[in-house]
Fold:
Amino acid sequence: MAARYDFGRNWAALAAQLGEEHVAQACEDLRRLVGDIAGRSFLDIGCGSGLHSVAALRLGAERVLAVDYDSRCVEVSRATLRRFAPAGGWEVRRADVLKPASLPTGHFDIVYAWGVLHHTGDMWAAIRNSAALTAPGGCLAVALYRRTPFCAIWRLEKRIYASQGWLRPVMKACFTAAVLLARAVRHRDAPSFVRNYRRVRGMEFMIDVDDWLGGFPYDSVVPEKLEALLERLGFRLKRNFNTQPRLGLLGSGCGEWQFERNGTSGRSLAG
Structure:
């Protein structure tokens, strides 16, 4: 896909700045969504910088397999895991969630895809393929962009940003100014928002701006449609966060869902 955004470049920029505070925030976020990880197998689909794989190991995962479509993300994740979890039970591979033959065989206790499946070019197929890797009694945890009235406009913006590199500085400057102005109009402290972004989001502000503006392919989800699909696939919703629709003028945030697959837990360690 000619216009696909270079996610690996952006994740490499984040990985260069990672510290223990990022790991601590990732552990907190992962625990909130997934719950108990200790002794379980963990598949990180779209591992990006490798940060959430590190968090899974810190929370006691028995084995972590991290996969990504982008070969640079694979390299970055390996470096991150060597740095923060050198003795952990982990492996990083290149794989495409839209191509089941490239994915691991067997099942995992936890299948995790945070902010990934809506960037594949076929979100619904990516969801189904991820669900198929979840062990009976295991959980599928996903974060997906919520559908907004402006999603079609944002899809066009992202295609332009991803394919026209010379426009990126101008687009980033305009978007950043709009975000900060919107906060100021609502009587919120814009400088503190940027200064505290790492602590609140676990990510650097400008890296996150670049990720949002460039994330193409792009899709978004209506929560009821997602939940209905997973129910048909034999899952039940256990918890969700931030799933209410929003206007979307300055972008769409991710909703988060944790689904449990029907059946008896097998404590799988897939290869």
Summary: The first strand starts at residue 41 and ends at 45. The chain has a mean pLDDT of 93. The radius of gyration is 18 Å. The beta strands are 41-45, 63-68, 90-94, 108-114, 134-145, 235-241, 254-261.
